Amino acid sequence: MKKLWGGRFSGSTEKTVEDFTESVSFDSRLWKYDIEGSIAHVTMLGRQRIISKKDAALIIRGLKEIRLEIESGKFKFSQALEDVHMNIESALIRKIGQVGGKVHTARSRNDQVALDIRLYLRDEISDVIQLIKQLRKVFVTLAEKNIDTVMPGYTHLQRAQPVLLSHHLLAYYEMLGRDLERFGDCLMRVNVLPLGSAALAGTTLPIDRHYVAKLLKFPAVSENSIDTVSDRDFVAEFIAAASILMVHLSRLSEEFILWNSEEFKFIELPDAFTTGSSIMPQKKNPDVLELTRGKTGRVYGNLVSILTIMKALPLAYNRDMQEDKEPLFDTVDTVTSCLSVLIKMLPLVRFNRKVMEKATAAGFLTATDLAEYLVRKGVAFRDAHSITGRVVKYCIDNNKTLNDMDLKELNEFSGLIREDIFHYMSVEMSVNGKKSHGGTSREKVLPRIKKVKSGK
Ligand code: ARG
Questions:
Q1: Domain total for the chain?
Q2: E-strand spans in 63-202?
């Protein structure tokens, strides 16, 4: 097939090279943005009289027809035409004749592809942001529904102190809030018009980049043509933000997998979101969570890919950069599918309040409360810690819990302890005493729920 760039070549391209260099098999997903960008570009070319208004109108009509053909599935992308840009431009020329070739005036594929990716990613980031907002809402609803449930909080996966389940769930709300900020911040840098940088140097033709920016709703125009066609920072940034989001989703998945196990029994996953085993009839597996945890790996892999592709590349455009798309697309697909499935599944998770509460009663979860009781009596924290440690050891040796101790026994360890200690060492008081800002008391968690619900 005759190439649009075929002028200086005498022979045709080797088939294996065509197969090797093509990108249309994956970048065809950018078609909508490629057409949108070309329409804006041509509108500007006409307005600037770089091409006639009549030609501009003809090209735009042709592009719109191609858009309809692709939408209806009639359009055939050809590998021999390399990429989405060449496919659409060739179709245009086939459709309206040589005048179609004017679409590429004052433009190169180097700024064109940068534009397409930015337009695409801008849309996808907005979707990801919406999904994160929905998932945050799910956590708020769950926190509100379970406001009275107490569970063991863990450090080192060892029972540490009693906390409200709501407080634990809202931890994810906060994590996702930082993800939102990161994607929002990334969006600001994606939202810059690259078009008009041409191959790398700009153009001698009197283009109006600011007008194109207005048409395509870009709040900013890039400042340096060399930087613009070399830059894939925004792809790396997006995948980095996605990687941190996946850190959060994988931690959530891991916790819920544990909580769903026979050993914990803190939650029960909805049947519709679990799968059976082909050999063990009793199994109900948390595959959605396991896959979310697993898919985290490919997103990190994509981050390493884009960073490695870009590392040490000389300015400006290099063909290496065509390799940016698959990691980017895969990241978009992965985070959107993980978020979507969690948004559906989490509201249906059943929390076993009784089991969680029982787990807070065993062990020595209120030991720190005993130490803090002593601190309030004037004991230095280190001494209070050591006294409490000895009490715990005594309990273990004598097969008792803290609450099995009577005052006389406790006074062997410190004469400062009074009857009210049993009040302070209760799970209820332990939780509701944590009134420091950001602490787990109902008194602190409830207003937080109220505040985030009001959207402030
Ligand atoms: N398919 C190419 C890419 O995705 C488009 C840019 C090609 N530019 C070039 N000078 N060969 O990066």
A1: 3
A2: 150-155, 158-164, 192-193
Q: How far apart are CA 428 and CA 403, in angstroms?
A: 13
Specify whether 62 is located in the same domain as 154: no
With respect to residue 45, please indicate whether it lies within any of the assigned structural domains.
yes
pLDDT digits (tens, 9 = 90+) for 348-380: 999 999 999 999 987 799 999 999 999 999 999
81: its two tokens = 């035409």
At 282 the pLDDT is: 76
CA dihedral over 307, 308, 309, 311, signed as positive or negative: positive
Residue-range definition of the domain harbouring residue 59:
6-105
| Boundary residue ending a domain (300, 335, 355) | 355
**DSSP character for 412?**
T
Decide if 331 contacts 242 (C-beta within 8 A).
Answer: yes
b/e map 214-229, b = 16+ CB within 10 Å: ebbebeebbeebeebb
| Residue 113 near ligand 1, beta carbon < 6 Å | yes
Position 5 pLDDT exceeds 90: no
Cα–Cα distance for residue pair 152/361, rounded to 1 Å: 9
Q: Which of 5, 109, 120, 320 to mutate for ligand 1's pocket (most ligand atoms within 8 Å of CB)?
A: 109
